[in-house]
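pinned: reference chain
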Amino acid sequence: MKYDYHVVDVFTENPLEGNALAVFPDATGLDGRVMQRIARELNLSETSFIFPNESRDGSTRVRIFTPAYEMEFAGHPTIGTAYVMRSLGIVPRDAQRFSLAENIGIVEVRVDEGTDPLIWLTTPPIHDLGAFDRAKCAAAVSLTQSDLLPDVPCELLSAGNPNIYVALRNKNAVDRASIDGAAFYDLIRNRNDRACVFVFTPTAEGAYSRMFGPEHNIVEDPATGSATGPLAAFMMRHNLAPNTDGTRFISEQGTKMGRRSFLHVLIHGDDGTRGIEIGGHVTPVAIASMTLEAVPA
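pinned: its C-alpha cells
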C-alpha cells in the first residue's frame, strides 16, 4: 500500500524552524502497531494519522504518535493537522471552525481570516497534579535554586501531557538549563505519568521557554502546544501574566536549539475561566509517500 504524507513546520512562518510534523491524510488500513513503527521511522516529535472513515458528528478522527508511544493529545500536531485538512479540502478550505476527535476527546479548532492565518486550538481541561521541591527542580535542569524566580513554586500541571513548570530569573538561566538525568529521575521518583520539565522566564511579550522530555525520549521539544495552555494558567496564577479576559501574549520556544517557535496565547474570561486558546502559523515543507508491503510483527 502507498500512503501519502505531508511534512509541515508548526508555530513558525519560516521553513525549517518551529516544530516539524508529518501528517498522513488517509491512514485507512493502518493499525496502531504499524503507525507506531512509521512514527519511529520518521523520528519527528510527532506524526499524525487521519481516519476519514472513523470521523463522526463533524469531528475528524486523528491519532498522534511520538517515536515511542501514542499520545492522548498534542498541540502542534493538532494545529499542523488542521492546516493540512484545510489545504487538502478534508474540511472546506475556508472553514473557520471545526474539531478533531483525538484520544483525549473533541479538540476545537478555530482559524483566523487571511492568507496566512493563525490556527487556534482550545486547550483541554487543565489539572493540578502537585508541587515539587524547588531545589530538586533546579538540580533536575542543572541549575541552582538562585536561578529560580523567588517565591514561585514548581508545580505539575497537565492538559493531557504532564509538565513540571519551573520559573527562572532570566533568559540566560533558561538557555543554561539542561537535564541532569540522575536529578531528574530523583525528582519524579514514584510517578508514572511521564512528566516533562518546562522552564521559562517572563518577558515583555509573554514568556521565553524550553521543554525537556526524557520520559518521552525527547531531548528538547521546539514547540509544545499542549504545555502552553497550562503555562498560561500557571503564569496567571502566580501573577506573571495578566489574568483578564482578552489577554494575549506569546511564548517563544525552541530558540536555543535553532528551531525558533512562536506560540500565541489568548485568554477567555478572567484567569482563563472560559478557555485558553493556543495559536500558531504553519509552514508547509514537503510532500512525500511511503510504500508498505509486508510489515514484520
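why pinned: The first strand starts at residue 2 and ends at 10. The radius of gyration is 19 Å.
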